[in-house]
Amino acid sequence: MVDRPRRPIPEATVARLPVYARSLGELTRDGVATISSEQLAELAGVNAAKVRKDLSYLGSYGTRGVGYDVEYLLYQMSRELGLTQDRPVAIVGMGNLGHALANYHGFSDRGFVVAALIDADPTKVGERMGELVVRSIAELPAVVAEHQIAIGVIATPAAVAQDVADRLVDAGVRSILNFASAMISVPPDVSLRVVDLAVELQILSFYQQRGKVTLAAVPDPMRSPEGSTVVEADDGPTAVTAAAVARS
Amino acid sequence: MVDRPRRPIPEATVARLPVYARSLGELTRDGVATISSEQLAELAGVNAAKVRKDLSYLGSYGTRGVGYDVEYLLYQMSRELGLTQDRPVAIVGMGNLGHALANYHGFSDRGFVVAALIDADPTKVGERMGELVVRSIAELPAVVAEHQIAIGVIATPAAVAQDVADRLVDAGVRSILNFASAMISVPPDVSLRVVDLAVELQILSFYQQRGKVTLAAVPDPMRSPEGSTVVEADDGPTAVTAAAVARS
DNA sequence: ACCTGTGAACCCCTTCACAGCG
DNA sequence: CGCTGTGAAGGGGTTCACAGGT
Question: How far is B222 from chain A (nearest CA, A)?
Fold first, then answer.
């Protein structure tokens, strides 16, 4: 309806938008009406120039001499991030991590609903977790269709991660968040993000091994507070086109 | 003892080393003796040129016309990552995520030992989890000293994340992995990595919102398989110098 | 013949610095 | 006078392409 996204937003910027959105949400709750790039930078842990550049990709929503209207900026950002309506998420793999994610209440406040839980283990299928019942992996296509699943979260052992990814893709899921310690390949039209806990620790281990170092990391796009040694490669973070990774 | 790290290793490369190490570990288990940059690239989900550049920062461990000796390369890489001896990790915050992390067995195989569990809730302190007993946050300095904690993992609510970080730093911990949805500031000599689950989902949401996109992400340094739309900004991951983020 | 190691080109992102507007 | 929005400069990382060993 409004002006459509004009120019392509850089990947690095996209990775920071959620961080700004989080800060803006807190400001809204605190009743703050207006904020400068300098102040927002402080809250998000980046520098002011970066904030202004990033926000400029969304449009000219600031007022010179004043700053940004918190509520309006948050609205525009949420729209850009597709958070104006809740997106249904399916979690596959009800081990320790899957359980934790299923019970994590941080999602509901931030634009997502855990709409389905899935496992391959027959002894786990049927188990009740809050409002949900664990469904069988065999039912995946039905579950995805039924709940209009937008994002699939893989929390299975590494050995079956690729198989699960394939099933998610076949079922029509086009966004995947992979927590398994395995590289998975998806078609070029599927978005994939990767979080490997052991990898995070190993990166920290590297820098500990030496003297201090200066890194930068926020959602791989995720740099941390400027100034401290935020070791988030960015690889941060971490978006890659799946096309190149042909199925081995 | 051996030749010390010659030139500084780029942050982006550091974030990928753990991914290579993971692949090399699998190759070792499969009894593969030698591997080319092309093959390793396939396994790690990056391109061959990048693999060669990255490995060249470690030294000249390959053989022209042949490739790399898997075991030797893995040894050198582990040494560089400081994984030759296990590093003790403390998890602070025994909620859903803290529990999951405490029970996650992927750490022990990859160079880390969960050596201590900590919570502020008196009803949780004393609780037994596997071989460990949950200790009070008040005991943090003693626990850190006792177990020589190298890395602190924050799995608390966002509201107390900064306080926990301050306590960890005061206790002498110089590497922190933050799972809380809050920006935290640490001194410049402390390494910080950030993983925010909601942020990851929101990044995926952005790309879903539009047509497909091409991203790149491995530990923000974490890009995914080349070719697919790996939406990991890299940003990977995500290392920043804390100094800049003065305590507000 | 093959594959590594690397200088050089290229590209993206960050940072600077200031013009432009309120 | 203040703060945004942005062209331009600067830096880092990726990719190319080939020289150099085996």
Answer: 4
Task: Determine the distance in angstroms separating the CA of A168 from the nearest CA of chain B, rounded to an integer.
Answer: 15
**pLDDT band of B239, cuts 50, 70, 90:** very low
Residue-level pLDDT at A211: 67
C-alpha A93/C-alpha B104 separation (Å) is 13
Q: How far is CA A96 from CA A101, A124, A210, B126, in A?
A: 9, 13, 33, 21
User: What is the pLDDT at residue A73?
Assistant: 98
- Per-residue flag: A142 CB under 7 A of strand D: no
Q: Which fold has domain A11-81?
A: Arc Repressor Mutant, subunit A (1.10.10)
| Inter-chain CB proximity A228 and B205 less than 8 Å | no
**Which of 3.30.200.100, 1.20.1250.20, 3.40.50.720, 3.40.1190.10 is the CATH number of A87-195?**
3.40.50.720
Average pLDDT score, chain B: 88
Contact status, residue A247 vs residue A230, Cβ threshold 8 Å = no
Q: Which of B166, B229, B247 to mutate to test the interface with A (most CBs of A within 10 A)?
A: B229
